[in-house]
Design a protein that fits this description.
flat; 73 residues; two-stranded antiparallel sheet; 62% helix
Amino acid sequence: MKRIAARVLLPLAIAAGLSGLAGGVASAAEVTAQDAPSIWLLPGLDVGALLGPAVQLPTELLKPVFGIITPIS
């Protein structure tokens, strides 16, 4: 019985420890044109300055919908 418990609990303890090490605080900072996100096409080739405005496109398109849904909910 101890062996079965060890086989189950040991991987769970390792997974919990690793997720605790990998976890962090996420932030949703506004992205401006000055600090364009890094978008790597190939190692060493950053196209973030070119594609930076396109990253915010879905957010800008959904702003009116969010503005309508928020008062309803």
